[in-house]
Write a sequence for this structure.
């Protein structure tokens, strides 16, 4: 009954989602062939005696039954202990505390670039549907959707290094507090790559939303009152089209966290994506499980935030 | 509206500012002549006895010293031991240690450190990966600070080469694994000054190194996970040294004006046959496979011809003649003849496991071998596996044939003794053993005269090829890329970066 309250229901849903993610990532990691022993020793694992193998499995906690492994991990997570990397001994909480802000920063920068590029292109396209201008906008959108981030990223990096001699990402990564200027430069290229990929779906959603709003009565009325085209586009049409754009942007945030894995690898950015990838490569179960859970939590929170944002930008939702 | 415009302006300013900052940034980079090495991965351990990952070995060999070392041709030369003497019967080795050597923390190195290190490596509880290399050692004595005496259970001529591995590095007698993980403390040419996990390791020259302090003011291993990004970093001048395995990456490095040196590797590409399983237990079936495969064609189609056809032994000093085998060239008639002799004139179906992702050429090698065998009437079914699954099957010897890339070692006993002696710990994976091979390997261990040893391992090689135990295909190159200012580095076939200690950057 209490669960009828919309906010509480959202929170319960979010918790259920997180539990689902936890089960899924736990099972999937163990379904991948190989374990930490073969990941660290490779084919040399063949030379282990059974006693050595058993000792290593006990060290990595692999000798426990799966439900015990799962529950002890989940129990620890519930008390804020995300486990530790067996390789470096560093706690996942500490690793995440330094990696997550970098990825979030990258995501916000990409969102900005994506929104600016996407909405600008959409307004250009929608201002004269089916014109040459529209075709150009649409083509750019299609390119953004089709060119994979790893290709765009490698190309950008290679061209700028070769012809401009400019490659901030080859320097040691500079934390924001140590060298903000270099730090920003190191995030710009990856953010451009992610932002370009993000601009495409935003552009397509925004274009159709803008076209729909343009045909509405209140726009015609405004135009009849003599509102100029600039003011009309920015004050009347765009706000009406914001809801689908915001929804799309919120959903794309998940894409950003996923895309970060690829882009952080290419540009050597020590964010959460590389943390997951390294964990998978080294079969560091605790690192992957807890980091994926953190990513899922971020995603859930962002979507919750998106829902709240509707109330701000759309009076109808506020009333409901 | 004002807000929206503000955001647009701010975003554009960020983008423009960052781009216009372009020209100035790289010149402000690392100090003039320090050497920055691009590495795809951070060392997975800093404890030398447990390091198997080559990025870890590459860093650790700068920090730690070994009793013996290998020269550019992989011949044994003095290390921490300046000389040694092997007794007439080969069962006692007496080392004389260098004087005046210190660890990074300033403490003195002496025979007690050697004894403690070797004893701990031999203790199974330590979990040292190279424990098996010391299997022949019965006891280690340190009669005086400069002398170490190894008493062996039997002659072991391969021991001296094995001792050059950083997995048998000499550690201070009182050092613990935990302490060394945090603060390495060795006798190597460099010492560690700064480490940022997953990003960078900075070393500085050890002024007291017995071979003379290295010439570069600092040596940094910078982690750049993507090989293509390392090439970009070399083009922009931020990184000046890197080692690549992928010929395409090496080509793009060469195309952009970097110096690229090719070195044949010790590791070898091979079609492993499990000769304990029917029908591969039949020599004629194995010979049919050997005769049906043109190794050069596999090399050309799968690896762009970037490598050399090889026999079993790849170490420069002991190298097998690739033509010394029953079918020196591809011979389909001979293949069909052998098949018929085995009672499979109508054809034969085999399966092979192939790793996807472990190394770039595996699947292309497998499909080319498949096509070549088909012409001889042998159907080869490919099981392409994710690398973890492949390793599981390989380790369990659960395959008929396997397309594999196996590591090599400088000494042929260390390289194949564990595979092809009946008591070797990888013999099950090798799928073959014979009394002749057991006798030859025993003889090789008992002979310390280098020329006599070479003759024995030629026999081993001949036996392996005559019995078509596996089909050895080719060795790839390692590509060492260096920037315009870098000189003095000598690449080694075992992938060691030992000669970074003699490398210079710029005119210094």
């Amino acid at each position: 009954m209490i669960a009828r309250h919309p906010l509480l229901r959202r929170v319960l849903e979010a918790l259920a989602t997180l539990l689902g993610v936890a089960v899924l990532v736990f099972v999937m990691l163990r379904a991948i062939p190989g374990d930490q022993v073969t990941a660290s020793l490779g084919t040399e694992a063949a030379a282990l005696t059974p006693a050595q193998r058993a000792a290593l499995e006990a060290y990595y906690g692999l000798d426990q039954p799966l439900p015990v492994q799962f529950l002890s991990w989940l129990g620890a997570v519930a008390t804020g202990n995300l486990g530790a990397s067996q390789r470096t001994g560093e706690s996942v909480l500490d690793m995440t505390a330094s990696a997550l802000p970098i990825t979030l920063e990258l995501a916000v920068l990409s969102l900005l670039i994506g929104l600016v590029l996407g909405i600008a292109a959409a307004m250009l396209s929608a201002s004269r549907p089916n014109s040459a201008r529209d075709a150009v906008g649409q083509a750019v959108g299609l390119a953004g959707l089709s060119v994979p981030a790893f290709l765009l990223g490698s190309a950008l990096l290679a061209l700028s290094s070769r012809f401009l001699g400019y490659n901030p990402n080859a320097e040691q990564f500079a934390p924001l507090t140590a060298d903000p200027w270099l730090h920003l430069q190191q995030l710009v290229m990856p953010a451009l790559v992610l932002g370009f990929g993000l601009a495409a779906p935003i552009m397509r959603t925004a274009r159709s939303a803008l076209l729909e709003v343009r045909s509405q009565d209140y726009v015609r009325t405004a135009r009849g009152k003599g509102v100029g085209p600039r003011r009309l586009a920015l004050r009347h049409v765009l706000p009406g089209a914001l809801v689908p754009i915001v929804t799309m942007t919120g959903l794309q945030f998940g894409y950003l966290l996923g895309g970060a894995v690829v882009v952080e690898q290419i540009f050597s950015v020590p964010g959460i994506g590389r943390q997951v990838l390294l964990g998978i490569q080294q079969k560091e179960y605790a690192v992957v499980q807890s980091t994926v859970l953190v990513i899922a939590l971020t995603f859930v929170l962002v979507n919750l935030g998106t829902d709240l944002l509707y109330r701000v930008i759309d009076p109808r939702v506020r009333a409901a | 509206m004002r807000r929206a415009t503000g955001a647009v302006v701010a975003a554009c300013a960020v983008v423009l500012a960052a781009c216009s900052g372009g020209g100035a940034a790289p010149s402000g980079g690392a100090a003039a002549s320090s050497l920055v090495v691009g590495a795809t991965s951070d060392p997975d351990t800093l404890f030398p006895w447990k390091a198997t990952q080559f990025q870890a070995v590459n860093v650790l060999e700068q920090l730690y010293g070994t009793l013996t070392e290998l020269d550019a041709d992989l011949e044994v030369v003095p290390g921490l031991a300046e000389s040694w003497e092997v007794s007439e019967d080969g069962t006692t080795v007496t080392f004389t240690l260098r004087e005046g050597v210190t660890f990074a923390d300033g403490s003195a190195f002496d025979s007690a450190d050697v004894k403690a290190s070797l004893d701990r490596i031999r203790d199974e509880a330590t979990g040292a990966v190279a424990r098996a290399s010391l299997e022949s050692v019965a006891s280690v004595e340190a009669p005086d600070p400069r002398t170490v005496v190894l008493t062996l259970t039997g002659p072991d001529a391969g021991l001296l080469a094995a001792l050059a591995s950083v997995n048998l590095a000499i550690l201070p007698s009182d050092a613990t694994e935990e302490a060394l993980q945090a603060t390495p403390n060795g006798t190597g040419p460099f010492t560690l000054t700064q480490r940022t996990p997953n990003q960078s390791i900075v070393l500085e020259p050890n002024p007291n190194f017995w071979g003379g302090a290295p010439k570069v003011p600092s040596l940094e291993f910078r982690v750049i996970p993507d090989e293509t990004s390392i090439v970009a970093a070399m083009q922009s001048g931020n990184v000046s040294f890197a080692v690549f395995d992928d010929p395409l990456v090496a080509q793009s490095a060469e195309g952009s004006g970097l110096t690229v040196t090719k070195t044949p590797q010790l590791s070898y590409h091979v079609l492993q046959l499990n000769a304990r399983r029917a029908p591969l237990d039949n020599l004629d079936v194995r010979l049919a496979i050997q005769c049906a495969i043109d190794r050069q064609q596999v090399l050309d189609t799968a690896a762009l011809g970037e490598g050399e056809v090889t026999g079993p032994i790849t170490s420069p000093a002991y190298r097998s003649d690739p033509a010394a085998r029953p079918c020196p060239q591809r011979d389909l008639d001979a293949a069909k003849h052998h098949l018929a002799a085995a009672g499979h004139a109508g054809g034969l179906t085999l399966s092979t496991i192939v790793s996807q992702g472990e190394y770039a050429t595996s699947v292309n090698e497998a499909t080319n071998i498949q096509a070549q065998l088909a012409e001889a009437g042998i159907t080869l079914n490919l099981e392409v596996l994710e690398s973890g699954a492949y390793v599981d099957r390989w380790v369990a010897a659960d395959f008929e044939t396997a397309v594999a890339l196996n590591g090599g070692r400088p000494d042929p006993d260390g390289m194949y003794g564990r595979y092809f002696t009946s008591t070797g710990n990888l013999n099950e994976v090798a799928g073959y053993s014979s009394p002749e091979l057991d006798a030859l390997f025993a003889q090789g261990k008992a002979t310390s005269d280098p020329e006599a040893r070479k003759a024995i391992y030629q026999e081993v090689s001949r036996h392996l090829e005559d019995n078509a135990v596996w089909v050895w295909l080719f060795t790839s190159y390692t590509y060492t890329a260096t920037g315009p200012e870098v000189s003095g580095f000598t690449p080694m076939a075992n992938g060691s970066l030992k000669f970074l200690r003699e490398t210079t950057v710029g005119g210094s």
Summary: Chain B touches chain A through 61 residues (CB under 8 Å). Residues 1-32 of chain B have pLDDT under 50 and may be disordered. Residues 2-20 of chain B form the longest helix (19 residues). Residues 409 and 415 of chain B are 5 Å apart (CA to CA).
